[in-house]
């Protein structure tokens, strides 16, 4: 047996091992035990155990002797396979750290140079896993946790490494291995590992080029016509426009017909022109300071304005409604507003799974990492009354925040690390590779539809000019801007690539540029005829009819109710409308007291609120009450949600049992956030005038941590954006020994912000 073992046993054992990997039952029981022990790390020479003896025969003894002598070969085989699996996993976990993401090619700001070299870039990468050069041409069976094989189940180690490098270390970096959803991890692996999956047809490449032409030439046109105007241009990340259009195309293909967007100022005019499709002359006339305002109020700078537009999506030939929410200078403040509006639109059209209405949020890298409202908004995403069933986030990572270097702007490696708190996969992509960007956006849009979660993509780009067009960036970033001055624009790079591939020729490319330039020139000529600025043309959430006229009216319709309705509401408020429902003994006494008040024709705060809400619900007006502890009420006074004392999660909302055809009542405890939740409710209230949307502070003085929403949206929204909103703030406070903070909600601040007419006494 000795010559046989030394010559061919390794091949035989390898065949048995592969068979066992495919199906453990396909090999003899002794082999099954042997491989299980070897995989579990049994010491050399101890993996073999004889199976339960049925009969002792020469063949069984020979096999046992063979297995013991074959053990060293098998140990090496198993160890090598485990090493290869560890290597594959290392690329999946850490490949994004060494991907070629920076279009400038300078030291990647995401990794400090003092960090040790990554193991997958180490010169002794193989040695770390117990492999060496002689193993490179050996064929290894691939685990089920990778798709690099395509239709092949085994590959040489050299090819395994090459394919992993192509999947994880080129212009796309993928962070996903921290996700605890196996199905989602496998889906992501399949999207990025499958050989040849990132292929584009010539038609798709031409569409991408045309979109890049529009994005780039729009900025160049504005620069030629108004070189000394602030516009916060998109130069350096022109690929954002094809990226957004791709997300919208893919979402439309999956059934979405309403997209609500929020974004900062950078690139906003370009998005309005080339994504929302705002008339170019309406944008160009904003640069004319001689326009007279037709609407009351101050208006706002052009790069803060919103828009609402319904059009045909040319790729899917389906109707799509696009709304870009107006925002202040306060970065990320619009995030919860967009999510609240999205939730409302889903609620009103019965879209309980987010199949019809979705949100897209754009961010800058510095603000995404620096603003706490990003974290607050993420943490609403999976709470019972707040989910929007997934958001696509696009981070425009231009590697600078105004003048601040990223190394001084955050403590974590990436600006997108905040998204990990909700198990969101994060895609990093080099913005100078338009096809990689578009592919990532396709995956993000499809992933949002499939898994109903957040899908952030980070487009690593640069900012060709200063913070605005008048700013000098060389003061603070001299080396970066020396490199930027040498950088060839992405449009030029991509056009040269397609011309070299024969997808387009030079005359076709120049014709595409001339065609869009002509469109811009003609729109500019028309814009000179615009004499009046209508802010209402920039509404992000238009309400039906002429509500504006009555909005300022000091008259109020009669709000009286008949006693029969009040009595009925009071009786429901003091009872449990569900059978076999055990409530707390203390609550029974509270409900009994309410019933006695109804009989005595008196009310307290809680019962008066109950009657007001109930009467509106009868009229078909939806009510949503949100905030910290609002279901019970801070002062144990409201009790709008009853809890069965014997059954976990069994609750009852009596307010939804008042009338047969009443409007629904939503009451929901929020997370311990004021800024994020008030922003969300403001967004919810934007969607319809026929609802009562209320946010209650746990104590009235807590509104000051949501001051940005009050100061930038609620108070000036009408004057800046002709935006109407019926949000109601409940701010409980009083001199009740609760300390100096809870004793006052600072009503004088709200009085100061009122837009009183100084010449009219109401």
Output the keywords:
762 residues; alpha/beta; Rossmann fold; four-stranded parallel β-sheet; 26 helices
Give a quick precis of the structure.
It is an enzyme of class 1 (oxidoreductase). The protein has 762 residues and is an alpha/beta fold.
Characterization of the model:
This protein is of the alpha/beta class and 762 residues long. It folds into four domains: 1-46, no CATH class; 74-193, no CATH class; 202-538, 3-Layer(aba) Sandwich (Rossmann fold); 563-753, Rossmann fold (3-Layer(aba) Sandwich), CATH 3.40.50. It is built from 26 helices and 18 strands. The strands form five sheets. It has an eight-stranded mixed β-sheet with strand order 3-10-11-9-8-4-7-6, with helices on both faces. It has a four-stranded parallel β-sheet with strand order 16-13-17-18, with helices on both faces. A hairpin with a 7-residue loop joins strand 14 (642-643) and strand 15.
Number of domains: 4
Largest sheet: 8 strands, mixed
CATH hierarchy: architecture of the largest domain: 3-Layer(aba) Sandwich
Weakly predicted, low-confidence segments: 1-7
Task: Report strand %.
Answer: 5-15%
- CATH superfamily of the largest domain, called what? Thiamin diphosphate (ThDP)-binding fold, Pyr/PP domains
What is the name of the CATH class of the largest domain? Alpha Beta
Topology:
Blueprint: H1 2-22, H2 29-39, H3 58-98, H4 125-128, E1 139-141, E2 154-156, H5 157-168, E3 172-175, H6 182-193, H7 202-225, H8 240-253, E4 258-262, H9 268-276, H10 280-284, E5 292-293, E6 307-313, E7 318-324, H11 334-348, E8 357-364, H12 365-370, H13 372-378, E9 391-397, E10 426-430, H14 434-451, E11 455-460, H15 478-486, H16 490-501, H17 506-527, E12 532-533, H18 547-551, H19 563-573, H20 585-599, H21 605-618, E13 622-627, E14 642-643, E15 651-652, E16 665-669, H22 675-686, E17 691-696, H23 707-714, H24 717-721, E18 728-730, H25 739-742, H26 747-753
Parallel strand pairs: 4-7, 4-8, 5-12, 8-9, 9-11, 10-11, 13-16, 13-17, 17-18
Antiparallel strand pairs: 1-2, 3-10, 6-7, 14-15
Helix pairs in contact: 1-3, 2-3, 3-5, 7-16, 7-17, 8-14, 11-22, 13-22, 19-20, 19-21, 22-23
